[in-house]
């Protein structure tokens, strides 16, 4: 699966750009503030209906404009999909796939599995469990057709349960909801656990290449005590939940634990090594997706050269290429990428003040 065409209109500093994309590695280069990250952000926006940089979607609309439009043509297994998105400053969003309006943004995400690696991706390792849960759920969502529905139900029931807790009702009044919650929580947990297990198998080989002799362990924690079943826990913890005003344990607290020996990875690895670990996790996800549902991801790698020496740039580019996926890489200087490649990128774009030009026949010096 890959994008063959991309049109960007009124998105950040890009007034209008029409790009013919390549199947493998697309290199986007230009000076600071030229619009490189904005191109990746536009692709992400098209796949997710939101930005990876800002939680305020109207910020991506070009200043003094009322809307933005994005269009991409995607080829998959001999089929062509035309995806169009229009986002208004008012908040409205319109998405069409092959001319048909779609109602749920998850349809978009399902169509375009996107992997992002940015200098901010470290947050996956440093910040709270939310980012890591989203990481697990990306895989669970794409590889298991029951996950989205089950997780949506869990969140809905939890919202309702938390409201009851705020109203300080008795346990008998939440019991009915707990039955449903337990059912879907177990389903969500099983899917996540299975996914992390498969991911670990793919991850091993990549970590051995990126971080040889570093004993990285990745494990899943489900969000409540591993020795207690969820039903008993919900019942015995009810007074605690009442005091807190929300459900304190459950699948909404699940996490991915990353350790080197007994230390959390952020205390044991250098910045370059942490970047490689994040890349390894994302590459493993892409490879697993390909293996499990024969679908390629699209990789958006912002500022790939930063923090990495020449050898590790080369290793990373090699591993990314091995996924067989379409890859978009940004860099300030093109040589920081081309010098690490055996063959030139399939496409090369230069960005200057939001204007994108294709570099014909990108040859190595
Ligand atoms: N809503 C907007 N309307 C117009 N311009 C915007 C908007 N939001 C951001 N910009 C501008 O877009 C420009 C491009 O930003 P972008 O982050 O894509 O640059 P970049 O090429 O990735 O730079 P760097 O190498 O520093 O990462 C910036 O100068 C920024 O000020
Ligand atoms: Mg940038």
Layout of helices and strands, plus pairs?
Blueprint: E1 2-11, E2 14-20, E3 25-29, H1 36-48, E4 67-76, E5 79-88, E6 93-97, E7 100-101, H2 105-111, E8 114-117, H3 123-126, H4 129-143, H5 147-166, H6 171-210, E9 216-221, H7 230-236, H8 238-244, E10 255-260, E11 263-264, H9 265-268, H10 271-293, E12 298-301, H11 310-322, E13 326-331, H12 335-338, E14 347-352, E15 355-358
Parallel strand pairs: 3-13, 3-14, 8-12, 12-13
Antiparallel strand pairs: 1-2, 1-4, 4-5, 5-6, 6-7, 9-10, 10-11, 14-15
Helix pairs in contact: 4-6, 5-6, 6-7, 6-10
Bound molecules: adenosine-5'-triphosphate and magnesium ion.
The site of adenosine-5'-triphosphate has 15 residues, from α1.
Task: Explain this structure.
- The structure is a single chain.
- The model has no long low-confidence stretch (mean pLDDT 94).
- Helix 5 crosses helix 6 (171-210) and helix 6 (171-210) packs across helix 10.
- The protein folds into two domains: 1-113 and 297-365, Rossmann fold (3-Layer(aba) Sandwich), CATH 3.40.50; 120-295, Glutathione S-transferase Yfyf (Class Pi), Chain A, domain 2 (Up-down Bundle).
- With 365 residues, the chain is of the alpha/beta class.
- The protein starts with a strand and ends in a 7-residue tail after the last strand.
- The protein is globular.
- The protein is built from twelve helices and 15 strands.
- The chain binds adenosine-5'-triphosphate (ATP) and magnesium ion.
- Adenosine-5'-triphosphate binds at residues 12-13, 30, 32-38, 59, 61-63, 332.
């Amino acid at each position: 699966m890959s994008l063959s065409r991309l049109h960007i209109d009124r998105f950040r500093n890009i007034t209008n750009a029409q790009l013919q994309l390549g199947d493998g590695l697309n290199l986007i280069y230009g000076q600071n503030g030229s619009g490189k990250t904005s191109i990746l952000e536009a692709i992400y926006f098209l796949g997710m209906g939101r930005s990876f940089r800002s939680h305020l979607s109207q910020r991506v609309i070009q200043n003094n404009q009322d809307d933005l439009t994005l269009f991409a043509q995607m080829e998959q297994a001999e089929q062509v999909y035309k995806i169009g998105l229009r986002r208004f400053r008012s908040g409205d969003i319109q998405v069409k796939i092959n001319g048909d309006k779609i109602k749920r943004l998850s349809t978009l995400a399902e169509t375009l599995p996107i992997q992002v690696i940015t200098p901010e991706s470290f947050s996956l390792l440093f910040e709270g469990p939310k980012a890591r849960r989203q990481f697990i759920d990306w895989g669970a969502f794409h590889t298991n057709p029951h996950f989205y529905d089950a997780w949506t139900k869990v969140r809905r029931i939890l919202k309702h349960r938390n409201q009851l807790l705020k109203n300080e009702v008795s346990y008998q009044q939440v019991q009915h909801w707990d039955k449903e919650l337990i059912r879907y929580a177990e389903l969500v947990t099983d899917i996540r656990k299975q996914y992390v297990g498969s991911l670990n198998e793919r991850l091993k080989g990549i970590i051995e290449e990126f971080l040889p002799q570093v004993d990285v362990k990745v494990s899943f924690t489900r969000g409540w005590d591993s020795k207690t079943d969820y039903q008993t826990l919900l019942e015995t913890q009810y007074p605690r939940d009442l005091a807190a005003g929300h459900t304190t344990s459950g699948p909404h607290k699940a996490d991915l634990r990353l350790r080197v020996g007994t230390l959390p990875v952020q205390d044991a690895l250098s910045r370059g090594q942490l970047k490689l670990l994040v890349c390894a996790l994302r590459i493993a996800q892409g490879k697993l997706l390909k293996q499990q549902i024969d679908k390629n991801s699209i990789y958006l790698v912002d500022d790939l050269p930063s923090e990495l020496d020449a050898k590790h740039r080369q290793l990373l580019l090699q591993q990314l290429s091995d996924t067989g996926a379409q890859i978009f890489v940004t860099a300030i200087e093109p040589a920081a990428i081309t010098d690490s490649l055996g063959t030139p990128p399939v496409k090369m774009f230069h960005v200057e003040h939001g204007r994108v030009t294709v570099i014909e026949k990108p040859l190595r010096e």
